[in-house]
Amino acid sequence: MEKDNRSSDFLHIGSKILEWYKNNARDLPFRQTKDPYKIWICEIVFQQTRINQGLNHYNNFIKRFPDVKTLAEAEENEVLLYWKGLGYYSRAINIHKAAQQIMNDYHGIFPDQYEEILKLKGVGKYTAAAVSSICFGGRMPAVDGNFYRVLSRLFADDFDISNSKAFTYFSELAALVMPENVGDFNQAMMDIGSEICKPKNPLCGECPINEDCLAFSIQKISDYPVKTKKVKAEDLALTYYFVHRNGQFLIRQRKEDFIWKKLFEFPDAISSNMETFITGSKTIAHKLTHKNLSIEIFNVEVISEKIWNDFIAENQYLITDVEGSHEKSFPKPLENYIQNSLKD
Ligand code: SF4
């Protein structure tokens, strides 16, 4: 559908969305506040995590780091620890840096302008729009996958959401229906996108805008949104050695910018005199965004105390045990391996 051919009067759709939101907004802890710090943390936490999966993490995080200052002054490893279980740990590293940015560049006061919020480490246009509209009355639509889906179905619009101009295009489309209260509108669209206009089997009968929805009226919902480009996932093989002795095992913190930055991992090599201690191996498949990992973990039970001590001294590994490992953040497959290793 060509945008220019549409009537400019779509504002009643925004009103219906707001009306629906008044009665149906999800009762979430971060909905009771306009504190930009909390809204920002919640937007980052729930970017790649479902609400019911991330809610406890969010509550624990806010309890430990109730404000920008506390977060900025914390050790990075502790921030990572409180992120444990949420995955995509670069988000935790970025919010920690952004908190320090707010302390240094904004005297500890959360910036209230969209352009300034956008300067914070790890904050994209979506998050900046959400925080500025919910907390400061900003007038930017918080366009994400939910917006793409709802708007492309609403207008039966075949603009390709994998196109690099999709954000701008759907922001303009959102502006056609956007009411005065953009903060509530953005939150309503988040709720409609995740609870009603779901990717599969949308609940059109319960949708507040079903009378206006073109895809619904022509029964072509599954044709929208249009996405042509599929990013091919890269295959990647990793090898680790679970080197242990008397209930203790060896770890180190990753430095690489590649994947799992700053998380802890097992050694990725052993010395030749340790090969006789290998008792078996296990291969684990794990998917990351755009990567299919195949992780082979060798179990190395070191019988010799001298070889154990020499290996640690030469490679500066940390010694831990299962209890100690709870205080550190590991990539999910290694975390699972540690838990299972104890059951054997
Ligand atoms: S009517 Fe159905 S397809 Fe259209 S916006 Fe509502 S839920 Fe989505």
TrEMBL record:
What molecular function does GO assign, one term? purine-specific mismatch base pair DNA N-glycosylase activity
Family annotation (Pfam families): EndIII_4Fe-2S (PF10576), HHH (PF00633), HhH-GPD (PF00730)
Q: PROSITE patterns annotated for this entry? A: ENDONUCLEASE_III_1
Per UniProt, the keywords (alphabetical) are: 4Fe-4S, DNA damage, DNA repair, Glycosidase, Hydrolase, Iron, Iron-sulfur, Metal-binding
| InterPro entries linked | A/G_AdeGlyc_MutY, DNA_glycosylase, Endonuclease3_FeS-loop_motif, Endouclease-III_FeS-bd_BS, HhH-GPD_domain, HhH_base_excis_C, HhH_motif, MIG/MutY
GO biological process terms on file = base-excision repair; mismatch repair
Domain of life, source organism: Bacteria
HhH-GPD domain segment(s): 45-195
Q: Which family would the database say this protein is a member of?
A: Belongs to the Nth/MutY family.
| Role played | Adenine glycosylase active on G-A mispairs. MutY also corrects error-prone DNA synthesis past GO lesions which are due to the oxidatively damaged form of guanine: 7,8-dihydro-8-oxoguanine (8-oxo-dGTP).
Q: What is this protein called?
A: Adenine DNA glycosylase
Q: What is the lineage of its organism?
A: Bacteria, Pseudomonadati, Bacteroidota, Flavobacteriia, Flavobacteriales
